[in-house]
Amino acid sequence: MTGKRERTKTANREAILAAAREVFTKLGYGATTVRDIIRATDLASGTFYNYFKSKEEVFQAIQDENALRVRPRLRAERIRARSVEEFISGSFRTFFDYIATDRQTFAVIRRNADTMRVRMDTPEIIAGFDELRADIVKAIAEGIFPLVDADYLMAALVGVAFEVGEHMLSRDPVDTAAAANFATALFMGGFRALPTLARPAASAA
Amino acid sequence: MTGKRERTKTANREAILAAAREVFTKLGYGATTVRDIIRATDLASGTFYNYFKSKEEVFQAIQDENALRVRPRLRAERIRARSVEEFISGSFRTFFDYIATDRQTFAVIRRNADTMRVRMDTPEIIAGFDELRADIVKAIAEGIFPLVDADYLMAALVGVAFEVGEHMLSRDPVDTAAAANFATALFMGGFRALPTLARPAASAA
DNA sequence: CGGATTTGGAGACATGGCGTCAAATTCCGG
DNA sequence: CCGGAATTTGACGCCATGTCTCCAAATCCG
């Protein structure tokens, strides 16, 4: 890692990613051009293409780095779980905490004019989903989970995590614990078990 | 509506939308250019801009038409509901049936190379979400629903609908009833109430 | 250490999409 | 049938894109 060539290589790559993060945040993903990213570095246009094929690819690299940050945490949480409740609540808590912390990153996605939710098929993200699915299957095999449709369960978990997470961020103050409690209660006890806002749900019609 | 001017106007608009649908399906949203759409019509480039500002706007118009088709059905289902179960299951059934039927439309979205889920802020779609939220609030006020966080509940419903819907479409054969049952059970009874795949869930750990 | 070889950055260039605008055409009312 | 308004046309200037060649610097090797 000590060769000059190697050092400038990683430096350039980092420079491009940093510039991209900045310019994506400022202009939104849709509006930024490859040239905008290049201008935010001191590199030549041709150099960019030695590292990435398009702005899409830069974006994916950024996404990938993010996934690399959360994935192990989520995994650890699930492995540690000794019950359904721990599995579910741990996952939601970790995920919500993450997106609340790394808002800068999420701002990139939400500020995006053209897309609401972006590509979810970078290697890291796919690996994360696969992991989740495998852990669900394993939990079912071990009898921790009832024998349900693992794919649909995963889809439901992901859907709730993203949508509720999105709403959570738009509130002030951001209360990750409350959001996690809500989501967990939904999965654990279903609709009727959701925390009531004022008085306990005496009547369940 | 009988004037020639007026007729060509709607004809042109329709021509552009039809061309866009076709070309979006073929190339994907991200890859198509305004020029591609124009080329698929027999209009001049300038004419396009008399009708739409960008491909984004065309896409929104298409989305809007779709929402216009589902929204009343969903609404009717919710109004008809006399219990939580009817509210939830009716909504899921209707939504899943719709996306299963109108796959051509959903193909446009799913074939999209750049985005997974596209802008959801056309007037019709926003109105649809607002309606859903209002109906939830109303159901809570009437005591049909327990007093839960309406925003989070809506987010959860939407998240599950889209994610599970997506998975549903990737199966062969597409079983909308099963998907609706799954989602409904999740919301009604929570995790433990989900239909088991083989034997009844005798043990709820 | 110095010449040969490889690597990779620089930036000009051809291509093609973008949105505009003045001119041409079409429609409508008188 | 004519005048004026509305609408379409398509060429134009501008800019982003991705490629390609050239060259300097880094690495390798005797």
In short:
Two copies of one chain form a homodimer. Chain A is 69% helix and 2% strand.
Features:
homodimer, 205 residues, mainly alpha, Arc Repressor Mutant, subunit A, Tetracycline Repressor, domain 2, 2 domains, 9 helices, elongated, disordered C terminus, DNA-binding
The pLDDT mean of chain A sits at 79
Unreliable sequence segments of chain A? 112-119, 196-205
Instruction: State the CATH architecture of the largest domain in chain A.
Output: Orthogonal Bundle
Assembly category: homodimer
CATH superfamily of the largest domain in chain A: Tetracycline Repressor, domain 2
How many separate domains make up the residues of chain A? Answer: 2
Strand percentage of chain A: under 5%
SS class of chain A: mainly alpha
* Principal-axis shape of chain A: elongated
Radius of gyration of chain A: 20 Å
User: Can you identify the CATH class of the largest domain in chain A?
Assistant: Mainly Alpha
- Enumerate how many helices of chain A there are, as a single number: 9
CATH fold-level assignment of the largest domain in chain A: Tetracycline Repressor, domain 2
Main sheet of chain A? Answer: none
Largest interface: A-B, 56 and 55 residues
> SSE order of chain A in H/E notation?
HHHHHHEHHH
* Gap between N and C termini of chain A: 66 Å
